[in-house]
Amino acid sequence: MATIAANEDIRRRIRTIPDFPKPGIQFRDITTLLLDGEGLSLTVERMLEQVEGPVDLVAGIEARGFVFAPALALALGAGVLLIRKDGKLPGATIAEDYALEYGTDRITIHADACAPGANVLLVDDLIATGGTARAAVRLLRKAGATVRQAAFVIDLPDLGGAAALRQDNISVTSLVAFEGD
Predict the structure, then answer these.
(1) What CA–CA distance (Å, rounded) separates 95 from 83?
(2) What single-letter DSSP state applies at residue 158?
(3) What sequence ranges are listed for the domain Phosphoribosyltransferase (predicted)?
(4) Active-site residue, 101 included
């Protein structure tokens, strides 16, 4: 299993854009990683090494989680469950609200997307404060899923999201961490 220190080759492929979307923010842009075939392949391979089975569904959080969920699901022989922003899914849905810095937001899944007891791996590109990821866990559990693990490419540990997920009894893995910014 590769450690965060061993993933320097992946870290180098992630571009930092200062002062985006507002001054003082260091935006970690994975588009440069996605443009690099070898980097993308290494990322998926190393994320897979950290998964503990069995996994019935890989749940990707909109939008960048949609990039990694299908690749992981194919390798695991699992299905893909899409966690969408409110108003994006047709048909019957279930939803979970969560707090933002100024207000609230909502994520949804189809009401029939997850069989009770399904083992679900939660996936996204980045874990920051953990608000969306924690809401996703609550939503999946509301649907009857068993959620024990979440995988991310990037962790921003100073923002506490991974630690908050661990308090929710989720095993959290990431490939690279950007501390202090």
Answers:
(1) 10
(2) G
(3) 51-153
(4) yes
79-124: pLDDT as tens digits: 999 999 999 999 999 999 998 777 899 999 999 999 999 999 999 9
Q: Which of 76, 34, 30 is nearest to 53 (CA)?
A: 76
CATH of span 53-177: 3.40.50.2020
Residue 149 pairs in a beta bridge with: 121, 171
Bridge partners of residue 179, in order along the sequence? none
Non-local CB neighbours of 120 within 8 Å, separated by 6+ positions? 55, 56, 57, 58, 59, 81, 114, 140, 145, 146, 147
Spans of all domains in the chain: 53-177
Establish whether 141 is a catalytic residue.
no
Query: Pick the catalytic residue: 64, 106, 141, 148?
Result: 64
Hey, what's the torsion of the CAs at 32, 36, 38, 39, to 10 degrees? 10
Give dist(CA 59, CA 82) in Å, integer. Answer: 6
The answer to pTM > 0.90 is yes
Instruction: Please state, in angstroms and rounded to a whole number, the distance separating the CA atoms of residues 130 and 59.
Output: 15
